[in-house]
Design a protein that fits this description.
Oligomer: single chain
Largest sheet: 3 strands, antiparallel
Helix content: 40-55%
Number of helices: 47
Length: about 1200
């Protein structure tokens, strides 16, 4: 069967293969569709929001803002954003803060005022305003004052009414203070021209007078204020006040004669329906019936409502209206268990989820009540659920809720589970929490949709949810509670180094994990490597814990018998390597091979090895071997006189330990006392051995030689009792007399280490002096005098001026404590007289004398103290003080002076520096140098973006601690540097040098843009460009230029060379030589059968490249279109002799190829394959029926409708049909 679209003989119909397209009118374009759905051209949508910017200079900010977001800034923006409902975007630099404010116009204005007040530096002024005018500034409930503050952007503080103060404080930004002051003056001036008078008026008639309030204002041009307690305040001109007062009295008399009063008993629960929201219903009754309604107070025992009016008819109508309002609402109660309330309310506490659709119905949720003995968080809910609204709707809602409650009670349930003391443990932050076993069960229950609540004070759990699931969860929890009640905890104390072996491998049958699963217990190891603990805790059921405890105890005992621990000190580099991932693999390999454990302690680069003695020895050897393999370790031995070994060791061995740590953990070995006393003849007591990495060893040897290379050759010892030896130790730390001896006599004095076990008791009593013999003898005499001075205890008084007594107790008596610790004496101060203070020094004579002289020097220094004061601009005082006064404290410690800031809150703060004259001057100069100065430098505007974008300006600011203020974009101006004098000077020079460098770079770049033009025939452009632009790129690389050719299709023959002038000229010379060489070449064309062109070219062009190389020719060109008549012609270009030689060679090759390839073989590929059926050789091909070009009325060929894919000069054969073309 023929397929659709095919004729019986296999031809296809044109109309079926190419159906006509629909008209464009039926399918509008997307542009037309958009145009029809777009907004009418006449209408415009305009946003009500506006955006304005607020700029605050850094100098005016109330906080220090240098590129970091201050908390004050964040809080202020958050507050203003909440108050004004505006969007804020903060941008800042080192000079100013720019805040973009977006919102409604009035909100934007308010936000700018609030931000200015919050962020800018505030000033305060005071105004003296009479007390009786304060209420006019405050206004009703203080609203007028709030409006003034909002309008002026300031903070106005009015003194309390119960005080006698008449001073009003105005604080805010400087530019806003005048505005607020002017506003207050206007109020004062306005009130000065008016008088006020009080008119008594019956309280029960006040509602009737309120209806006349606007009439009185308009008629008499006065301000009326009706008070709550039988008083009316009038304010205005005196003449108008009298008339208004008379009018009010007349109205009062009129009311007295007309008013009728009716009382009605109404339940107090109905009062809120009569009053309405904010008294709305009462005002409606007054306006509609001219009847006032007086509601008694809630705490009043009377329930009578009083109605007053001028006509009984209106009063009766008002009573009917009140009755309607009372009966328009119904309140009912729905009782439900407290736990079910949240299911009625919904998880989002929104009764709209009930889909009732009754908008006038209100719900009053039951409140939490606190039972006796319960904390605030432990509360229960009332079982009443109140519904209030129109009677019909309330009844429908109640019916719906009752049905909903019935469904809840049928599907859900509530259970309470009591807990014992073991179920509650102390958790994080000492808060009570459930035991681990219960926590896991509770988490599982919550996953299953059960609501579980924990009440620690009541010691209970409450469960809410599906009846079956709650029942199952309750059984599970009760079983857990039973297990916990029968649980037990036992602690096993085991050395911490054994913990890894006790824990074992996780998959091992001897591990604690296997033990936990076997006995259903939990085993916990306490402590970590850096804070080891020896406790292993076992918890679980009583019987299981005891069995597991005994089994674990036997394992520990076996390990203790077979296990030892050893520490191996490692080199720092290898220790750090062991902490990395490759190092962990090394540790694991050693542990597996030796069945031991390796624990690293980072403080001293120590590896702790745990295992049997044999395993430890093997593991230690493997660790040392791995260390030697990782590091190029070496051992170097040097000879240092044994008398100098103590110098190398230092006090308590600290010097040698510091050397080892400084040199990467090398091991420095010096002979011990036992080795020095041995009778071994081959032992040299002067030997010092250093072992470790080669670089570290060389460094340590150099340090040791440096310490021991001093020229001293005399050693003397002075014996002293242990008591005075401790004196000298303390005195030595204070930098006292022993240091003076060292400097004066150029000797070294070494005190024996107190806890050196290698020293005998006699050696610990000897002080060693090392140096030249003469210097040592003199120092020894002075040292004996010092020792004799230690043996004499004295008590010496000293009188100092009373004004200096407080100096000893400043900073928590730091000076007094330092003196006592430095000299190891007792110092007491007592009042000798009104002008003198007695200082008593008690202790060793030599120490007392030294301290006595130091105190006298201190007093003399205090007498010689001077005070220098300098006034500082308030804008710069925070910069001088530094964060938390850090700059001042640093200078006090550096120059030993006292610095104060006086009158900090005033406009002219003063810096006061007290101390010695020289120190005061130096400290003050340092302080004043922190005050910023300004300097202008001229930077061309074109260089400013480069300095900013590259970060150079920011780097200079941070480097020199200054600020750089560039002129605004597009404006001509000077660049201002502000900061310390030294920083500004250095930054100015650095910026000037940088600008000069930019100018030089600009000149260099301009020289690179030099352009040179050459007129070269277009036939050589391609040769200059080269294949794949290789030749052009080579020229550009060699000469550092850029070569530009004219565009394709243009008649321009100019070639441009761009670059440095010198390079461009060299490139021009080179190119002209190449063109001259090409012009001397000749081209010869001859025919070579097209079938041999591929042989001439060869695979990947190897054959043609070899021809060019052998014959020295420039190029061989082949026809680009093989279908052209001259498809056999090739062209050879080069020197005349080489071209002819190449031509002869190619023609000879053609003859040879023809002889070796008969014609039959050459055309064999054209024959049809023998396996094809005969019918396939006579196929009619593909043809179309009813095609437009076969219509006799249409032209045979339309170039527009069927453009030719061939070149323009080729025409298709008239005898060829479409089928033939497809066939061949």
């Amino acid at each position: 069967m023929a397929s659709e679209g095919a004729s019986p003989n296999g031809s296809q119909y044109y109309g079926e293969l190419f159906p006509p397209l629909s008209s464009s009118s039926q399918f509008p374009t997307s542009r037309q569709s958009m145009r029809t759905n777009s907004i009418p051209a006449g209408s415009k949508l305009k946003s009500k929001n506006i955006t304005q910017s607020l700029t605050i200079p850094i100098q005016k900010c109330t906080f220090n803002y240098f590129g970091t977001r201050d908390q004050t800034m964040s809080d202020a923006c958050k507050l203003v954003r909440t108050e004004t409902n505006c969007q804020l975007e903060v941008n800042s630099d080192r000079d100013e803060i720019c805040i973009m404010i977006t919102g409604l116009a009035e909100n934007v204005k308010l936000a700018k005022q609030r931000l200015t007040y919050e962020l800018e530096t505030k000033e305060t002024i005071q105004m003296l305003v009479p007390k009786d005018l304060h209420k006019h500034i405050l206004g009703k409930k203080g609203q007028k004052l709030l409006d003034i503050q909002k309008e002026t952007g300031t903070k106005i503080t009015v003194p309390r009414a119960d005080t006698d103060s008449e001073i009003i404080n105005i604080s805010g930004p400087k530019e806003y203070l005048a505005r607020a002051q002017q506003r207050l003056n206007e109020i004062i001036k306005d009130r000065a021209t008016k008088n006020a008078v009080s008119v008594p008026f019956p309280k029960e008639y006040i509602p009737f007078l309120q209806t006349k309030e606007s009439e009185i204002k308009n008629k008499f041009n006065v301000t009326i204020s009706i008070q709550k307690f039988s008083e009316v305040r009038l304010m205005g001109e005196i003449s108008q006040l009298d008339s208004a007062k008379e009018y009010i009295h007349r109205y009062e008399r009129e009311l007295n004669s007309k008013i009728r009063t009716v009382k009605a008993h109404i339940p107090k629960s109905k009062y809120k329906y009569i009053i309405g929201k904010d008294g709305k219903n009462l005002r409606e009754i007054m306006n509609k019936f001219e009847v006032s309604v007086e509601i008694p107070a809630k705490d009043d025992g009377d329930d009578q409502v009083v109605l007053r009016g001028t006509q009984e008819k209106n009063i009766n109508e008002a009573l009917n209206d009140i009755e309607k309002k009372m009966n328009s609402f119904l309140e009912t109660v729905l009782k439900a268990p407290p736990w079910s309330h949240r299911y009625l309310i919904g998880y989002r506490k929104d009764l709209e989820e009930l889909n009732l659709g009754y908008s006038k119905v209100n719900f009053e949720f039951p409140r939490l009540k606190t039972e006796l003995g319960m904390n605030e968080g432990d509360s229960v809910r009332e079982d009443e659920f109140k519904i209030r609204g129109p009677p019909e709707e309330v009844l429908l809602v109640k019916e719906h809720l009752e049905q909903l409650l019935k469904d809840i009670l049928l599907t859900l349930t509530h259970e309470v589970i009591k807990l014992n003391n073991k179920c509650i443990i102390t958790g994080f932050n000492n808060k009570p929490t459930l035991a681990f076993l219960l926590r896991s069960a509770v988490s599982k229950a919550r996953v299953n949709g059960i609501s579980v609540r924990f009440w620690p004070e009541k010691k209970q759990l409450t469960l809410d949810g599906d009846i079956d699931r709650v029942s199952q969860t309750k059984e599970d929890l009760l079983s857990k509670i039973s297990i916990i009640g029968n649980s037990k905890v036992r602690d096993l104390v085991v050395e911490h180094f054994l913990h890894p072996l006790v824990r074992g491998e996780p998959q091992s049958a001897d591990s604690t994990r296997f033990l936990e699963n076997k006995h259903n217990v939990r085993i916990k190891f306490f402590g970590i490597e850096d804070d080891p603990s020896e406790v292993i805790r076992i918890s679980g059921e009583i019987s299981h814990v005891d069995v597991a405890y005994e089994e674990l105890k036997r394992k520990v005992k076996r390990l203790q018998e077979d296990t030892v621990s050893a520490n191996v000190k490692l080199y720092k580099e290898f220790f750090e390597h062991l902490e990395t991932r490759p190092g962990r693999r090394v540790r694991e390999r050693i542990e597996v091979e030796t069945h031991s454990r390796i624990v690293l302690f980072g403080e001293n680069c120590v590896a702790n090895l745990v295992g049997t003695e044999r395993d430890i020895i093997k593991a230690e050897a493997l660790v040392i071997e791995a260390q030697d393999k990782f590091l190029d370790t070496t051992t170097e031995t040097i000879l240092i006189p044994s008398q100098l070994h103590r110098i190398i060791i230092g006090q308590k061995g600290k010097q040698v330990q510091a050397l080892e740590a400084e040199c990467g953990g090398v091991k420095i070995h010096l002979p011990s006392q036992d080795q020095r006393q041995s009778a071994d003849e081959n032992f040299n007591p002067d030997t010092v051995t250093v072992t470790g990495p080669s670089k570290s060893v060389h460094k340590a040897v150099a340090k040791i030689r440096e310490i021991s290379s001093s020229p001293e050759n005399c050693f003397e010892g002075v014996k002293i009792s242990p008591q005075y030896m401790s004196y000298l130790r303390r005195y030595r730390r204070a930098g006292g007399m022993l240091d003076d001896l060292r400097e004066k006599f150029n000797v070294r004095i070494y005190l024996p280490a107190r806890y050196d076990k290698s020293l005998s008791e006699d050696e610990k009593k000897i002080i060693t002096l090392i140096g030249k013999e003469k210097n040592v003898n003199e120092a020894k005499k002075v040292l004996k005098q010092i020792i004799s001075g230690l043996e004499e205890e004295i008590k010496t008084p000293l009188d100092i001026p009373m004004v200096y007594r407080r100096n000893f107790f400043k900073r928590q008596a730091q000076l007094l404590i330092d003196l006592e610790e430095d000299y190891d004496i007792s110092i007491s101060l007592s009042k000798g007289s009104e002008e003198l203070c007695e200082v008593t020094l008690e202790g060793p004579k030599i120490f007392v004398d030294s301290c006595y002289q130091e105190i006298k020097d201190l007093v003399q220094a205090w007498d010689d103290e001077v005070t220098r004061e300098e006034t500082v601009d308030p804008m710069h005082i925070s910069r001088v003080r530094g964060p938390k006064n850090q700059n001042l404290m640093n200078l006090e410690d550096e120059y030993n002076v006292q610095i104060k800031v006086i009158n900090l809150s005033n406009q002219n703060p003063v810096l006061s520096v007290t101390g010695a004259q020289t120190q005061v001057d130096n400290a003050m100069d340092r302080l004043l140098s922190a005050i910023p100065i300004e300097r202008e430098i001229d930077i061309p505007p074109r260089y400013i973006p480069s300095l900013i974008k590259s970060g150079e300006a920011n780097t200079i600011e941070q480097k020199h601690g200054i600020k750089i203020n560039f002129p605004r974009r597009g404006s001509a101006g000077m660049t201002i540097l502000s900061g310390g004098a030294e920083g500004v000077e250095q930054a100015s020079g650095e910026l000037t040098d940088r600008i000069e460098g930019l100018i030089q770079e600009e000149d260099f770049e301009a020289s690179k843009r030099y352009s040179l033009c050459m007129n070269i025939e277009r036939e050589y452009h391609g040769r200059i460009n080269g294949r794949g632009s290789m030749f052009r790129k080579q020229i550009e690389t060699d000469f550092g230029v850029i070569i530009k050719f004219p565009s394709q299709g243009s008649d321009d023959t100019n070639v441009h060379i761009v670059g440095i002038k010198e390079n461009a000229e060299k490139a021009e010379e080179y190119i002209l030589k190449q063109v001259e060489n090409w012009e001397s070449q000749v081209s010869v064309s001859f025919d070579v059968p097209h079938k041999y062109h591929g042989r001439i070219i060869g695979a990947k062009g190897r054959a043609i490249n070899k021809l060019k190389e052998d014959f020295g020719i420039l190029s061989i060109d082949f026809p680009k279109n093989p279908s052209l008549p001259n498809q056999n012609t090739i062209r050879v270009t080069g020197s005349e002799g080489n071209v002819n030689s190449c031509k002869d060679y190619l023609l000879e090759q053609v003859i040879e190829w023809d002889e070796n390839n008969p014609v039959e073989i050459q055309h064999e590929y054209r024959r049809a394959p023998s396996n094809l059926p005969a019918s396939s050789h006579h196929s009619t091909g593909f043809s179309l029926l009813d095609a437009p070009w076969k219509d006799p009325s249409q032209p045979a060929f339309s170039q527009d409708e069927f453009p030719s894919l061939q070149s323009a000069h080729s025409q298709p054969s008239q005898s060829d049909n479409w089928a033939a073309k497809v066939k061949h």
